[in-house]
Amino acid sequence: MVTNTRRAARRRGEPDVVEVNPVFARPGEATSVPKFRMPDDESLPSTAYQIVHDEAMLDGNARLNLATFVGTWMDEYASRLYLEAADKNMIDKDEYPQTAAVETRCWTMLADLWHAPDPERAIGTSTIGSSEAAMLGGLALKRRWQLARRAAGKAADRPNLVLSSAVQVCWEKFCNYFEVEPRYVPISLEHKVLDGHELEKYVDENTIGVVAIMGVTYTGMYEPVAQIAAALDRVQESTGVDVPIHVDGASGAMIAPFVQPDLEWDFRVERVASINTSGHKYGLVYPGLGWVVWRDVESLPEELVFRVSYLGGDMPTFALNFSRPGVQVLLQYYLFIRLGRTGYEAVQRASRDVALYLSGEIAKMPAFELWNDGSDIPVFAWHLRDGYTENWDLYHLSERLRTKGWLVPAYPMPDDLTDLTVQRVVVRNGLSRDLASAFLADLAGEVEYLDALTGPMPAERRRSGFHH
């Protein structure tokens, strides 16, 4: 971590050692373990297990975490597969050729799901998460642009990427790490997402692509890919500049095919060159999996694909990571054949139904006004009604809900709307209607508590509770 956790722990008065419970300590074992250096002596497996188990117990209840998009539940057969395949290295295709074959099956299934013109001519890869997948998509856009510029005898040293001001932080990292100028199109009350409005002001001959988000992290809303493509068509007609689209479908690419199958956002839109998604979000797999798929092999420059000799085999690879777990790929394949399209549709529709139920009930509360209702991906946000109260804000409400175990972030909206604070709920598989009803009861109770205050809550430096 960037921060010094040891100094922070000392400021909080935490000791530098972990005390071993006498019930678990064995004769001859140390009775305490240092926190920030390796112990000198061994511990029994049962003692070490208990120490780590007790540390992890202090984490929150994942089922009550309404902040994260990341999956927190899989069935017992998936857990069994996880243990059986935990040692597989995804990158070692010579040692684990069947896992490599399963990876190819998975991204080919995704290419078909996303209407690639010829799924067998598409190309894709698994990644550690959708952030790596997005960066690979961005790298392909940059290299394609560079190759085209050089072939035309033009300068290729000032690439830019057009995206919404509400974009996920991985795209900020991409632009920083790979030296691409980000051009942020601000969202507003009139244009809540990047929708093609005034896009011509941001696009020029140095634009490597436009990022369209299927499920904006701040609010869960879809950006209209076909509408953005139409705006780029008009730009090409007037300037000759031909700009591709990368769809960041971290969440929505595993929702829209099942919940809004007629919505054209994928490879049906000709300008879409590549799509990324999170297997560990609405792909329903445990953390550690992303996917990126290109429309066809021409969309991924060959020079970005490395062919290396590894443990006796010739292996093509395009990734930022090298060795990484293969088990999540097997878990994704398990879910694809376990659920099929019908099963995924049932799961995703159930989550959206809960989101619509929650947003509908919250909209009835006098304190709140919805930003959106969760009808895109099952995520929605709300803010306090203007003039409702001077005694508390959504940060106070977030803190009160945390005392009941609910993690519901409060955070400012992005540039040009930073004076607006919202709260957001992410409905994932496992948040049942019963749990949603329990949350609503706690939400109403905490609002009632705050409304009963006779004076304002203490003001302190605000810490954003925003979670990607």
From TrEMBL:
Extract one GO molecular function annotation from the record: glutamate decarboxylase activity
Please name the Pfam families in this protein's record. Pyridoxal_deC
Record PTM N6-(pyridoxal phosphate)lysine, positions in chain: K281
Q: Which keywords accompany this UniProt record?
A: Decarboxylase, Lyase, Pyridoxal phosphate
Q: What is its EC number?
A: 4.1.1.15
Identify the domain of life. Answer: Bacteria
GO annotations of cellular component type: cytosol
Task: Write out the GO biological process terms.
Answer: L-glutamate catabolic process
EC top class, as a word: lyase
Q: Which cofactor does it need?
A: pyridoxal 5'-phosphate
Q: Keyword Lyase: yes or no? A: yes
Say yes or no: keyword Lyase present: yes
Q: Which Gene3D superfamilies match?
A: 3.90.1150.160, 4.10.280.50, Type I PLP-dependent aspartate aminotransferase-like (Major domain)
The record, for PANTHER family, names: GLUTAMATE DECARBOXYLASE
Q: Which family does it belong to?
A: Belongs to the group II decarboxylase family.
Protein name (record) = Glutamate decarboxylase
Protein species of origin: Cellulomonas shaoxiangyii
